[in-house]
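Q: How do we represent a protein-ligand complex in a form that can be generated token by token?
A: Start from the inputs.
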Amino acid sequence: MSGMRPTGQLHLGHYHGVLKNWIKLQTEYECFFSIVDWHALTTDYEDPGMVADNVWQMAIDWLAVGIDPGSAKIFIQSRIPEIAELHLLLSMFTSLSWLERVPTYKDQQEKLKNKDLTTYGFLGYPLLQTADIIVCKANFVPVGEDQVAHVEMSREIARRFNYLYGREAGYEEKAELAAKKMGKKNLKLYRELLTSYQEQGDGQALEKAQALIESQQNISIGDRERLIGYLEGGGRMIFPEPQALLTPASKMLGLDGQKMSKSYGNTITLRENPSSVEDKIRTMPTDPARVRLSDPGDPDKCPVWSLHEVYSDEDQKKWASEGCRSASIGCLDCKKPVIDSVLKEQQPIRERAREYQNDPEMVRGIINEGCEAARDAARETLEEVRQVMGISYR
Ligand code: TRP
Ligand code: SF4
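Then emit the structure tokens for the protein with iron/sulfur cluster bound:
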């Protein structure tokens, strides 16, 4: 499970960092990708006018780069009210100091000085993210370095939840009853394994008992979780502890050689029109030592070089680097192949985006389907959560 804030047009930094990674992961896991509009409101609450359009444009960007609704579910956070309910319920046992200690809290307040972020909603940002992650019982969360602390928080919350509410009333009796459903022979084996684990700390016995429980066809998921929990001596595991899958930092830097970011004004957007791409790269700064064509340069001091690192093969890199150092090519010559590569990469993306843009019904249909899948998972989770927290009146 992962999410992205709908704060504006996606750019090549997003593509080479996050999105290409998602495209790979969608073939390996069952994925949920969320457009987190509530998170956008935590910082843009005074000026929410752009959020709705950004949501749809982001959906189009994701689809255009190849997030495949046939294998991954794309949904909009605010369409899943269960996430808000879970956020509220988690807030009951989340201590203020946990939230205040999350490094992004102070950092972002510092960075976004023009906004008043001394709000309840902004303090709860990582808890809302926790609700996103655990509502679908995600095991893995692909994120960049800057989000690792948030995933860490979701682990702590999941653990605390399991500790507080995994021990249902009559827990041991329920585990006993569940064990009986395995049939006589298995029950006997289970008891033996349990004893040798509990009395002798036999790790192999634990593993065998786990495998035995996993292999039972005729017991419910709830009973299975109960038995596993009982075996391990803790409560029932209601939420798995999610784990960050660190996205390697993108090599794609901005036009000025800093990290590509909208706030630095150094981006090339995913769907930037070709003439603008060409202008932006042609006017990119280069090694300042190359004033004249005859001045040799150093690729390591030039932001254009970082584009070669992303787009050029070994031969082309050799050509550029040797040409630069020997002053045998000009900077415009050097930029030409990168301009071509960016345009070539963007062309199919731009075309697919245009198709989706021209067919908003199709986009809505895809999103609706993703929302339904996310909601099914969320409903099931919340039923369980309400029950163990003692507020299920049915
Ligand atoms: N906070 C994340 C970011 O700014 C976005 C996000 C919200 C998220 N909910 C999530 C990421 C759940 C991963 C999982 O990038
Ligand atoms: Fe940069 Fe290429 Fe010019 Fe060298 S030749 S300074 S690498 S743009």
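Residues 1-5, 36, 39, 129, 132-133, 141, 143, 147, 150 surround tryptophan (ligand 1) (CB under 6 Å). The radius of gyration is 26 Å.
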